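Recall from the previous lesson that a structure prediction takes nothing but the amino acid sequence as input. Here we apply that procedure to Alpha-L-fucosidase from Pipra filicauda. The sequence below is the only information supplied.
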Amino acid sequence: MSRVSGPAALLPPLLLLGLPALLPARPRYEPTWGSLDARPLPAWFDEAKFGVFIHWGVFSVPSFGSEWFWWYWQKEKREPYVKFMEANYPPGFRYEDFGPLFTAEFFDPNQWADILKASGAKYVVLTSKHHEGFTLWGSKYSWNWNAVDVGPKRDLVAELAASVRNRTDLHFGLYHSLFEWFNPLFLEDATNVFKTRKFPTSKSLPELYEIVTKYQPEIIWSDGNGNAPDTYWNSTGFLAWLYNDSPVRDTVVTNDRWGVGSICTHGGYYTCSDRYNPGHLLPHKWENCMTIDRRSWGYRRDAQLSDYLTIEDLVKQLVETVSCGGNLLMNIGPTHDGRIAVIFEERLRQMGAWLEVNGEAIYGTKPWRAQNDSVTPEVWYTFSPKEGTVNAVFLNWPVSGILELGEPQAKLGETQVKLAGYKELLKWVALGEKGLIIALPQLTPKQLPCQWGWTLQLTAIK
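The prediction returns the following tokens.
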């Protein structure tokens, strides 16, 4: 047996046996909201700022009205949905008959990944299962109602996850609906006022464990509590496992939709409601999940051009959201045959082009002391801590070429003002505690660094 000599001889004996022995113990989280809510949110999520939501499923086949098609047609019997079915499908046609028509023959996960990368997004969230119960992977808990057994005969989750990870730096996440509208086990539990728990123990929870262990998503975007409490879903038990023992325990982030009473109260980050955009700073990390199509999360064949938000609308949403401490999760709905409609692709690529110029005012930023300007409307602020820069994003280019900002207080001889995407420093005049006036460069429309909102980077601001 040889003696240890040299620098290694100075190491503590435990270190020679294994470094982890000297590292602090990993925190363990109890299955209580008090313990789970104390878990720090992994830093990558706040730094990412922008993600893309993808709503895709059997509802993409009728592609009429809403992704809630089945519910509105069968449960609420809304007239437009009933008439649509009477006019286009034979008597006795069931929602389940749409399953084989969900074909995905044009689904190219590499193309999707390339479009996602071009959007400037830092994460993507795919609907692994919506309220209809159809899973986009071959779940052994969803026999004959999944994309491997019916329709595409492909594991859509696995294919997109592989392409996103191989071709981009995006974090991959999965949406999962806790409840299912017409699952007999869930309906039985609901009839029993959730005193029985057949559905979560045999279907919903096993699915969650399955997608985490199989696909290792870094976001679990829960939804659809079915008016049942978190105790029915055993949400805290699942989250304790997710944070303590799952393969993504160090990097995974979760939202706040884990049962009645949890939304905007418990979980990793808050969504509060669909299209939530408070317009002011919140004390807790939050996300604005919203749709490019104003009226639906899933693809609609009956959508009009005016139903789609413009790129100006979307840039405004992003800037407002980030300045108030939130992330923007912008939704698209692919077609039943696996295409990202060209209008969605255009919006995504436009956002990417904008972020190419203005990304420093978005990624990795923190909220500044003021979220929007007190003098000029449609000016929103962020702060870049690494550079010590205050970013002022203004959405309207003033006709006069002069922009007045009421919030920043300049330091004579020190403050510099730069327009993102433009080389020369800008001239400015201080107004003391009342802000400053900035002379914008005289540019033709083609010379502008971008078309839909511009960033001023201010250094050495008081």
